[in-house]
UniProtKB/TrEMBL annotation, chain A:
Keywords: Ion transport, Membrane, Transport
Domain ATP synthase F1 complex delta/epsilon subunit N-terminal intervals: 1-54
UniProt keyword Phosphoprotein present: no
Main location: membrane
Organism: Linum tenue
Entry protein name: ATP synthase F1 complex delta/epsilon subunit N-terminal domain-containing protein
One cellular component (GO) term of this entry: proton-transporting ATP synthase complex
Subcellular localization: Membrane
Span of the signal peptide: none
Automatic annotation (TrEMBL), chain B:
One Pfam family it belongs to: ATP-synt_Eps
Family matches, as InterPro entries: ATP_synth_F1_esu_mt, ATP_synth_F1_esu_sf_mt
CDD domains, per database record: F1-ATPase_epsilon
GO cellular component: mitochondrial inner membrane; proton-transporting ATP synthase complex
GO molecular function, one term: proton-transporting ATP synthase activity, rotational mechanism
Compartment(s) of residence: Mitochondrion inner membrane
Record protein name field: ATP synthase subunit epsilon, mitochondrial
Quaternary data: F-type ATPases have 2 components, CF(1) - the catalytic core - and CF(0) - the membrane proton channel. CF(1) has five subunits: alpha(3), beta(3), gamma(1), delta(1), epsilon(1). CF(0) has three main subunits: a, b and c.
Record family assignment: Belongs to the eukaryotic ATPase epsilon family.
Example of a GO biological process term: proton motive force-driven mitochondrial ATP synthesis
The keyword Mitochondrion is annotated on this UniProt entry: yes
Function: Mitochondrial membrane ATP synthase (F(1)F(0) ATP synthase or Complex V) produces ATP from ADP in the presence of a proton gradient across the membrane which is generated by electron transport complexes of the respiratory chain. F-type ATPases consist of two structural domains, F(1) - containing the extramembraneous catalytic core, and F(0) - containing the membrane proton channel, linked together by a central stalk and a peripheral stalk. During catalysis, ATP synthesis in the catalytic domain of F(1) is coupled via a rotary mechanism of the central stalk subunits to proton translocation.
Length: 112, 74
């Protein structure tokens, strides 16, 4: 079973899942293989669940959660939260919001 | 992401494409990696362009530009 961070919320996928295309938000993908659990942080992307119970998860970056450095994450979160407060153009606000979303997702991945 | 209904995701409303959004997210994740994964990942961010100008319907000699670009375009 896998749990993917879809934009509509955490989505669990088991064999026999209805064919689905889900857009992913930055977050943790958990892979349960028997009793083994692995967690990966995906930067964004898609999950394709096919009719034959094969699921493809596409992401530009997918890293094991323990490859993330929590100091860098917290610094980045503080930086982007501050940028969000001082952003003026729509584009700056969007970039700062993306930063806050990504870094807070990484932060919860490390602390959750 | 249900904020203002028909506007779609906030980055789309601000004029960003999905590709640049996705590349920005990836770039932020890469910047938070521990070494040695970080140096390996930063290699993936490098983008090489081969550009040739066309004159009279024929391409001139291409020039290679190497840029470290996190998210092409806007």
């Amino acid at each position: 079973m896998i749990i993917v961070p879809a934009t509509t919320g955490q989505m669990g996928v088991l064999p026999g899942h209805v064919p689905t295309i889900a857009e992913l938000k930055p977050g943790v993908m958990t892979v349960h293989e028997g009793t083994d659990v692995s967690k990966y942080f995906v930067s964004s992307g898609f999950a394709f669940i096919h009719a034959n119970s094969v699921a493809d998860v596409i992401a530009v970056e997918a890293v094991p959660v323990d490859h993330l450095d929590s100091n860098l994450v917290q610094k980045g979160l503080a930086e982007f939260t501050q940028k969000l407060g001082s952003a003026s153009t729509d584009l700056e606000k969007a970039e700062a919001q993306i930063g806050v979303d990504v870094y807070s997702a990484m932060n919860s991945a490390l602390t959750g | 992401m249900a904020s203002s209904g028909a506007a779609g995701p906030f980055w789309r409303a601000a004029g960003m494409t999905y590709v640049s959004y996705s590349n920005k997210c990836a770039s932020m994740v890469r910047s938070c990696l521990k070494e040695p994964h970080r140096t390996e990942a930063l290699e993936r961010e490098k983008v090489h362009f081969s550009i040739s100008k066309w004159v009279d319907g024929k391409p001139e000699k291409p020039s290679i530009r190497e840029e470290i670009d996190s998210g092409c375009g806007r």
